[in-house]
Amino acid sequence: MKRRWNSSLWLGFVLVLAGIASYPLYFIRFAALRDFPWVNLPLIALGLVLMAVGIARAFWRPDVYRGKIFGSVLGILALALTGFFGFEIFVTARQLPASHGAPLVGQTAPDFTLPDSKNDPVNLSGMVHSAFAPNGAVDAAIGANPTAATLLIFYRGYW
């Protein structure tokens, strides 16, 4: 009797790989999925269950299904990759460096210079001490000497 191809073993391994690879390649772009892998964990769990079924088939009915040795190797590899993925997502990614010397809320930010959208240098002190006028009416605002304020926005993300 010819032994059959153990499809649940291979499908499970492909699902585990897809669950692990799709997080950094696709799902990290969405804020709701970046902080906790809502889609990836069920996909990996389903893949591991299918692999367990495939390995059980191979050991309980070796005359019908293939995969005793290769299925065991794939199972160990899938568990190792899943453990590495979990460690990277839940341990390593949560370890932010200490921000010694970072300005606190309400504290004056240190002066800095950055390029604007036209690649011209803009510094913080120049913006705070410049005359402010809406719609570019600088000449009218210079005589009135209004107070200018600057809002700094810090984005957390991956780029």
Based on the structure, what is the oligomeric state of the protein chains? single chain
Content-based structural category: mainly alpha
Strand content: under 5%
Q: Order of strands across the biggest sheet?
A: 1-2
Q: Give me the count of strands.
A: 2
Structurally, how many domains make up the residues? 2
Q: How far is the N terminus from the C terminus?
A: 55 Å
Q: What integer value in Å does the Rg equal?
A: 28 Å
Q: Low-confidence segments, ≥5 residues, pLDDT <50?
A: none
Total of DSSP H or I helical runs spanning 4+ residues: 6
Largest sheet: 2 strands, antiparallel
User: Which outline best applies?
Assistant: rod-shaped
Chain-averaged pLDDT: 81
- Helix and strand pattern: HHHHEEHH
Summarize the amount of helix as a percent range: 40-55%
Explain briefly what this protein structure is.
This protein has 159 residues and is mainly α. Helix content is 50%, strand content 4%. The protein is built from six helices and two strands.
